[in-house]
Design brief:
The complex is a heterodimer of chains A (705) and B (249). Chain A has 705 residues and is mostly beta strands. Chain A folds into three domains: 4-265, Porin (Beta Barrel); 293-424, 2-Layer Sandwich (GMP Synthetase, Chain A, domain 3); 427-694, no CATH class. Chain B is α+β, with helices and mostly antiparallel strands and 249 residues long. Helix content of chain B is 21%, strand content 45%. Chain B has helices at 6-18, 38-56, 76-87, 149-156; strands at 23-24, 92-97, 102-112, 115-119, 125-129, 132-137, 143-147, 161-170, 176-195, 198-211, 214-223, 228-236, 240-248. In chain B, strands 1, 2, 3, 4, 5, 6, 7, 8, 9, 10, 11, 12 and 13 form a 13-stranded antiparallel sheet that branches. The longest helix of chain B has 19 residues, at 38-56. Chain B is globular, with a radius of gyration of 17 Å. Residues 1-45 and 52-75 of chain B have low confidence and may be disordered. Classes of the chains: A mainly beta (705), B alpha+beta (249).
């Protein structure tokens, strides 16, 4: 589909004012919109030098003979992509019905295609795993006309196992796998090298024909009778149901048939860019002062009925738009409203709507508008606008009003005291909803799911003081399936998940009293006490320093916790510990953010956690994290250290209508007791930064939506 | 201070009473982007308008054959237009989203710096400046704003010439991106427009805007005072074209 938006240049001149707007990274050429058998850019088995459009996230499932692959692939930057792949082999190891293997791959585009030269990429497969799929390659892909692409490459390791042409960089040394999880870099590009290659032909928009020569001998699989290739050749065809949904069928190695299914999503392409929610109320311009001097008077200040009248009218109008007016202050020339946003994924949109309503609510003499975002009862950042600018720029591009906005923290200002809106506190909210707990890519089961009903409630006593609880009743699931004896030598802080799942029905998921506070300018505090999460109870405290316009934040957290009974009712087990971290947060400003924390983990181990996320302005987050502690590999067990991938998808992206719901998934290559972190709700940074300049500027285009 | 929001609200409520304000049109499945020529585009405009106004029981264009009598539907469509006109003493128009087969009767909710925010009862809005479409809200893939003053001045002056326009859209990331187009305004032919309380002689103008490979063809019926009384205007690549028939200026 030809979209004109390919041809639209970013409004760079005026957007330059947006301090933290991520720089658009240039897309690379020679892109693919369908993947190979292994769920990454490739023909069938063999990789290509193609890349997916920047930010593409893909799930693939493939099966042939006794082998299945499940792959999550992410185009991390326009040049760099990574895959996490789960392989299941039956008839491979007599100790297992299905032998499972997890692999992490990286591929990097070195050179883009030119008129004469091909695109060239380099890749390393299975760089942290047990080595079954360890291989490295350099590959070139060239387009011939519109419909044909030809690929040729050199492979090492597994990709050099068939038709080897000698070892240009020396023999491939043995690699001591140990407990896995460490890079096998001594092996990279060593040992026999072999040629592979192939071609693809787009018959039309839907169908692509595939053919290749493979350099993978499947030595181990053939020896064990899992899969025996008869020729080096693969043939196949791929069918695109619609953009992002592909099915491919293959005839593999003269031996067997295979199928793969591939789903692609791109954060850049939401269901509806502007959303389908109702129009905002328009700005009501004031009459000119000369034409109607009376309406500009300030006598109304002395009328005690005015402020309550405005407050209730404004509160009602905001409520209709999914916004709560928590508090307000008003003088002859300045009005501040404190609003919590219950509906819009973009805080800038809630602020924009509230601003327009202010033009309809306040007397003409009120020239300064302060819109303060509130979350968990706390003011988390204010936008100051001149009413004249709001009137003048309603129909101008959003960057125009952005350049007039001032971002500040009202705490510590000598502003007027705000008056709480009557009826907002105390409040009780509750819901009964189905729930699903999903654990993906566990060592023994690719997909673990518990599902049932969750009754949850929140009672807000006053701004910042909240009692919240949730009870779950499991109806079905497989998270309680235990795979052998738990032989962890550490305190079983996370590894008893099967016991918790089996015995906790019904379960008190959490029952906590939380107090959120603003100890001072740029400071945020939290104290949470009670049953903090399904496995631990206790007291958790946190303080965060985060200036409104800063890309750096610093937080400290300390908790005293005791392990909960497996039945997740009110009882406790014997294990107690103190856990806490000091964490630095940094926003690189180019779409990447990082967190670095050091401290003591749940099992009493000391160490640090590093996390990097690619954060898309519309709320998508794709990130990876790793924790190294003072545990030896023997103590930690398989995997050597804790690491994983996390993924947040805002439902607004998929629905096209506004909602603040986000689907968050964390995938760990292995769950174990080392490097484990308390799962407490309401950690400060996640929600505090939403009211700050960086987050607002990234989606400021929604201000007038 | 009660009633801060009530003017608009009352207007909208009244509009809502006119009700059934969105009518589904099954007979209107054309593709406005399929490279129709200038004449064909004018014909299309006349044809489509005739079809739609036939549905709501109003005839257009002096030279056109009289519209068929309103269909059997209990007096509805014609009544809708007259009810809309009696429900408010302000401006009223019919807007038709071609690709979505939606007809809406709209009124002006607010005017700010010359931009009129027209709303339908379901709180979807279109923003026009002097009859030229500059933005939309609530349609999905909205046009957030545009800079069109040069075209507006030329069309209102019933003049021919070259202009530039700039359309601002939201990207998937919630940021603004702009589409700049080069336009040429060409005079068409004389026509008579009669709908609702509008009954004027007009001259047709075409505004052809290009940002390769996109080609936009806006059509305007302009009366002797420079009012755009009827038009077909591009909104976005997803929503396509919107037809406007003003019923009261």
């Amino acid at each position: 589909m030809k979209r004109i938006f390919r041809h639209i240049a970013l409004l760079s001149g005026t957007c330059g004012a947006l301090a933290a707007t991520p720089m658009a990274m240039a897309e690379r050429s020679t892109q693919t919109t369908s993947f190979g058998l292994r769920g990454a850019a490739g023909i069938i088995e063999m990789p290509t030098a193609e890349v997916a459009p920047d930010g593409t996230l893909s799930f693939s499932y493939s099966s042939f003979g006794n082998i299945t692959f499940g792959t999550l692939n992410f185009q991390i930057t326009p040049r760099l992509s990574g895959s996490f792949r789960y392989s299941g082999l039956t008839n491979f190891d007599p100790n297992y019905d299905t032998y499972t293997d997890r692999a992490f791959d990286l591929s990097y585009r070195l050179f883009d295609e030119t008129d004469i030269l091909p695109a060239v990429s380099v890749g390393i497969n299975d760089l942290l795993g047990t080595g079954l799929y360890s291989s490295e390659y350099v590959v070139a892909t060239k387009s011939i006309g519109e419909n044909i692409r030809v690929t040729g490459g050199l492979g090492w390791g597994r990709l050099g196992s068939l038709g080897g042409m000698g070892s240009p960089f020396g023999d491939r040394p043995d690699f001591e796998i140990g407990f896995g999880g460490t890079p096998n870099y001594t092996q990279w590009f060593r040992g026999p090298v072999a040629f592979f290659g192939g071609a693809t032909y787009d018959v039309n928009d839907k169908i692509t024909l595939l053919a290749e020569y493979s350099s993978d001998a499947y030595s181990l699989e053939a020896a064990r009778g899992t899969f025996t290739p008869l020729t080096p050749f693969n043939f196949g065809a791929s069918y695109k149901f619609r953009p992002g949904v592909n099915v491919s069928a293959y005839y593999l190695r003269g031996s067997t048939f295979g199928l793969s299914f591939n789903l692609m999503a791109n954060p850049n392409s939401p269901a509806a860019r502007s959303g389908t929610e109702q129009a905002p109320l328009p700005v009501r311009p004031r009459p000119s002062r000369s034409a109607d001097p009376e309406s500009w008077g300030t006598d109304w200040v002395s009328d005690p009925a005015v402020e309550p009248g405005i407050r209730s009218a404004l509160a009602a109008a905001l409520t209709a738009d999914g916004i709560t007016l928590e508090a307000m202050s008003l003088s002859a020339t300045r009005a501040e409203i404190r609003i919590s946003n219950n509906r819009y994924g973009a805080q800038a949109q809630a602020i924009g709507r509230a601003t327009r309503m202010m033009t309809r609510a306040f007397p003409a003499s009120v020239e300064t508008f302060v819109i303060t975002s509130v979350a968990n009862g706390l003011p988390i950042g204010s936008v100051i606008l001149a009413r004249s600018d709001v009137e003048a720029l309603e129909h101008a591009p959003a960057p125009d009003i952005f350049s007039r906005a001032v971002f500040t923290d009202v705490i510590g200002d000598n502003g007027q005291a705000v008056t709480l809106t009557p009826g907002v506190y105390p409040s009780l909210t509750w819901s009964l909803q189905p729930y699903m707990n999903v654990a993906l890519f566990n060592p023994d089961a690719p997909v673990g799911i518990d599902g049932g009903l969750r009754l949850s409630g929140q009672y807000k006593f006053a701004p910042g003081l909240v009692l919240s609880g949730a009870i779950t009743a499991k109806l079905a699931g497989n998270l309680d399936v235990s795979y052998g004896v738990n032989d962890s030598v550490l305190p079983h802080v996370r590894s008893d998940v099967a016991e918790y799942s089996a015995q906790g029905n019904p379960a008190i998921e959490k029952l906590t009293l939380s107090w959120y506070s603003r100890p001072g300018r740029n400071l945020y505090g939290r104290v949470t006490a009670g049953y903090l999460e399904s496995m631990f109870a206790g007291v958790s405290t946190e303080v965060l320093w985060k200036p409104v316009d800063s890309s750096f934040a610093l937080g400290a957290e300390l908790a005293f916790v005791q392990q909960r009974d497996f039945n997740q009712l009110l009882g406790l087990r014997d294990y107690q510990t103190i856990t806490g971290h000091i964490t630095g947060y940094y926003d690189f400003g180019n779409g990447f953010t990082s967190q670095v924390g050091v401290g003591r983990y749940l099992a009493g181990d000391y160490g640090g956690t590093v996390a990097v996320d690619r954060v898309f302005a519309n709320g998508w987050k794709v990130g990876a994290f790793a924790t190294l502690t003072n545990l030896s590999p023997e103590e930690f067990g398989e995997g050597t250290f804790d690491k994983g991938i996390r993924l947040s998808i805002p439902l607004e992206w998929a629905l096209g209508s506004p909602t603040r719901s986000v689907s968050t998934t964390e995938m760990r290559s292995l769950s174990s007791d080392g490097g484990a972190i308390l799962q407490v709700d309401g950690r400060l940074f996640d929600w505090v930064q939403e009211g700050h300049a960086s987050a607002l500027s990234q989606r400021w285009g929604k201000f007038w939506r | 201070m009660i009633g801060i929001f009530s003017n608009l609200h009352q207007n909208l409520t009244r509009m809502l009473l006119v009700s059934g304000l969105t009518v589904t049109l099954s007979a209107c499945g054309n593709d406005p982007n399929s490279g129709v020529g200038m004449r064909a585009a004018f014909d299309l405009m006349k044809g489509v308008s005739a079809q739609i106004l036939a549905k709501v029981g109003v005839s257009i264009g002096g030279g056109e054959a009289a519209a068929p009598a309103p269909s059997s539907s209990a007096g509805g469509p014609l009544a809708l237009v007259s009810e809309a006109l009696t429900a408010t003493d302000g401006k009223v128009m019919i807007a038709i989203l071609e690709t979505r087969n939606v007809v809406a009767i709209m009124g002006v909710a607010e005017t700010n710096h010359g931009y009129e925010t027209w709303e339908a009862a379901d709180r979807r809005s279109l923003i026009l400046k002097d009859g030229v479409l500059t933005a939309s809200r609530g349609l999905g893939d909205d046009l957030m704003s545009s800079r069109s003053d040069a075209s507006i001045a030329m069309i209102r002056a019933r003049a021919e010439g070259h202009t530039t326009r700039s359309y601002n859209f939201l990207t998937g990331m919630g940021q603004i991106s702009s589409l700049d187009v080069q336009c040429e305004i060409i005079e068409g032919s004389k026509d008579h427009v009669a709908a609702g309380e509008v009954d004027v002689d007009a001259i047709t103008f075409a505004e052809i805007c290009i940002a390769d490979p996109l080609k936009i063809q806006n059509l305007y019926w302009v009366d002797s005072k420079g009012n755009i009384v009827k038009s077909r205007q591009w909104l976005s690549s997803e929503v396509g074209y919107v037809l406007f028939q003003h019923l009261r200026l």
